[in-house]
Amino acid sequence: MANTKLLTDIAATVKTALAEDIGDGDITAQLIPADQQAKARIISRQNAVICGVEWVNEVFRQVDKTVRVNWLVQDGEQVAADQTLFKLEGSARSLLTGERCALNFLQTLSATATISSYYASLVEGTGVKLLDTRKTIPGLRNAQKYAVSCSGCFNHRIGLYDAFLIKENHIMACGSITNAIATAKRNEPGKPVEVEVESFNELMQALEAGADIVMLDNFDHAGLRLAVQKNKEHPTPAKLEASGGIDEHTLRSIAETGVDYISIGLLTKDCKAVDLSMRFV
After folding, report:
1. Catalytic residue positions?
2. Residues 38-64: pLDDT tens digits?
3. How far is CA 247 from the centre of its chain?
4. How does DSSP assign 148-210, residue by residue?
5. CB-count exposure of residue 262 (10 Å: 0-12, 13-18, 19+)
6. What pTM, to 2 d.p., does this model score?
């Protein structure tokens, strides 16, 4: 279930989506008599993990508060092809006006949930946490991160404000890894400080400077195992995150190197919309 902050975000996102779709009125729906009532059911045409219940609810709440939405599944639930997800009852005009907007949210967030669930299954039992990234659809950052969290994966930082991720250009601008970390801790005490490194020398600098998390960028398997060992031996170890060039074929073996996290941009940027359909009954 979405939290209060997310529900506020959902209302705003849905309002924007409806405005761009309906404009000054759904002229096709107006072909139908205003008092005509209808019932419909929404099915999935493929196996999927569903996510987006509150987005659909909000669409019909904003279109027409009298529309009744009866869910047969919940967020994070695996469904099969041809399974009914929810039923609608109300004004035929309202059902048709809200259809595409509602299904756009549901198909997109279910796509994110489906691929996240699949990737989570690939590392089951290893103890590693799979993290999303900021490579999200503009305007749907919070929605996609919610979908990731429904499906066995976890959220990296939400944006540029809640945690540090110090990369190569930040380091160059600050003069060194040590300076960058020290400045971060001074500017925003208490916020997590993560540093991206590309070598063992940079890893040791990050550990010495007190990084909370070190991102190991494009390290090979042997390098990841060695980094895990060096981190364990250090008096102030950090959490280690593997990143870069990771796919379903390499994921399991990387998880088995002993890193704490693996970040994967494709959880939110390479998903294919789930095929859904609304049918009047």
Report:
1. 100, 135, 167, 196, 217
2. 999 999 999 999 999 999 999 999 999
3. 17
4. HHTTT-B---SSSSSSEEE-HHHHHHHSSHHHHHHHHHHHSTTS-EEEEESSHHHHHHHHHTT
5. buried
6. 0.93
